[in-house]
Each structure stands twice: as structure tokens, then as C-alpha cells.
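hi! just following up on the protien thing from before. the input was this:
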Amino acid sequence: MSEAGGQAVPIRAAVLNTAPGQLEFEQLELDSPGPHEVIVRTAAVGLCHTDLHYIDAVWGTDLPEVLGHEAAGIVTAVGSEVRSVAPGDHVVTCMSAFCGRCRHCVEGRLTLCLNHSALRMRSRAALLNEHGRAVGRIGGIGGFADRMLIHENSVVRIATEVPLDRACLLGCATITGVGAVWHSARVRPGSSVAVIGCGGVGLSVVQGAKLAGAAHIVAVDLDGRSRAQARRFGATAVVDPTDGDPIDRVRAICPAGVDYSFEAIGRRDTVEQSFAMLGPGGVATVLGMVPDDQPLRITASELFFHEKRLQGSLLGSNHFPADIPRLAELYLSGRLDLDSMISKRFAFDDINAGVDALRRGGVHRVVVVFE
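and the predicted 3d structure came back as:
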């Protein structure tokens, strides 16, 4: 049942109405949950560069929209058919909603679900503004609001011992980075890894590579603080790309080239570098959102003479209903560091200041905390 006995409830949200622009606080009406939906009281949400891309119009989306997808909170109401969570459960959101029935889901490739868009379709708008206009929710989540209406296959229950301001990181940055190591690249013990870009996702790759038993983990980043943090998280070497050619610098550390590389920035030149750093048989995995107007240029002969691979990874090719609880347990056991991932915390009222901090750079993850 819903919080208001089947009636729409008022919520407070930070809405993107124009882009480029800033978030504007509004009171919206949140619809009651459908049979397979849940309402979650938002406790914390991470600010992701994906959100910033939409705010700054690097990527386009239909407006108005409530951004925010890296969220954690407490279930307050569930639809009539929901069995996976119950009111009072602590949950983490993930954008890779899955149907569980299409061929990709059956094969365990949940991020490629053929029906994920259909899961978010509703006969009525989930959110309405004061003018009666529908307001979108990024990824079917809309975490920049004090309540979220989400399909049950976009949330997963976690242990209540995990603080929710750290748990939110599991739903995007951590699952993308560690998931790419586990599922996309399948890093082997004793192998060599290069990570280009040491923000929240890149640092999660570093941690995932350490968990996977990589022998060499080379972190590449312009920012000295990010390189230092990468060392604390398990990097065995760091490279400043302004101090000589980064490809040569990485190959000086791993002369045969690395077995795996990960690009976590979203730029053509760094993707090309990630491919050039590989040794024979190596795999380059792109995690950053490279704009379509930046076509990639690679040495094609290396694909067949050296059997190199260049691949993408959506949200770490995750199996989030299983992965996120595992990651939560790794945090509780002290093997996954979420505490040090957070550079700054802001109250919900100060969310635009948090966005500005993300835009300025020099931060790993910014988290907005709700009362």
C-alpha cells in the first residue's frame, strides 16, 4: 500500500528545468506505487558526472527531470505484487532495471535487458509539478527528491549496518568500477592493470583490481590528490600524464603492456591511450561516456595481429541484486573502502553547491545527505 492510502503525496525535489542550468527546488506530486513499484524515502544520493553532463547539456534529456540515480534510502511503501523488499528495508538503487525474462536476462546480462524501458512505463506520470506537467526521473529513479517511486527491479535490500550515506555509492560508482573488473574484463590474479581517471569510478576499479588479485595496478590521473588516493586504495604505481607521454610511462612500468586497461573519464584521447597501453591479448574497457562526436582512432591491425580487444561496459555489466549485497559485505569486513571515497557531504538544500564542487574537480565523490 502507499503512504497515503493510494493517493498522490507531496514531495520536495530539485528539478532540472533548463539545460545548461541549475537545479530548482519544487514541490511535486508523487503517484502511488503500481503493483511492482516501491516508494523509498531518500537518505543519501551521490552526485555523479552523468548528472553533471545533463545539467551542463553535454548530454541531452527531456525536461523537466529529476536527476540523481546513485541513491540509498528506506522503503516506506510497496505495490501489491512486490515480494523482494518490504517497508523498513534499507535499499540501494541501480539504473539497470531488468525484466528477468528476455534472453539477455536469462543469460545473466542484466544491463542489456531488452525490456528495461518498458518497466518504467506507467499509465500515469510518476511525478507532476504544480502546473500538472509530467516530470521525468532519470533512469526511472529520480534521487534528487526526498521520496522516490521505483520499479522493484531497480532496488536491492542491504544490511542495515551499512551507513546509507556510504551505501548510495554502491549503486553507481562502485558497481560500475568493481563490476567492470568482475564481469566485463574478468581480471585474473597476478595480471597487470592500468586505470585512466581516478574519480569515484576509477578508484572503484582500483579497489576491484586489488580484490581480484592483480599484481600491478597503475593509476593515471592529472590530479595529485587522486593519484595519492589511488595508492591508498591499492595502486602499485601512479602516472601523471603531464609528466611525459602516459603510454610510455605505463609501458616503462609494464614493458610488455598491461593485460587490462580501464578508461573512466569519457574522452576520445584517453580511450585511445587505454588501447595503446595494452600488451598482446589485452582488453581495454571503456567506462566513461564518450560523446558521439568524438570518433575513436585506433591501430586496427593490433586487433588481429595482437588480438587486442576494445569493449564498453554499462554500469560494470553488473548483476546488481547479487553484487550490491556482496559489496556491502566487503565494506563491513573492511575489504572495500567506501568511507574514503567521499570527498564532501552537502545537505539537500545545498545540492547546487555540491554540483559546483563536482564541476570544479578535485573530488572523488560528493554525497548529498537528507534529514
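The chain has a mean pLDDT of 95.
Residues 195 and 262 are 5 Å apart (CA to CA).
cheers
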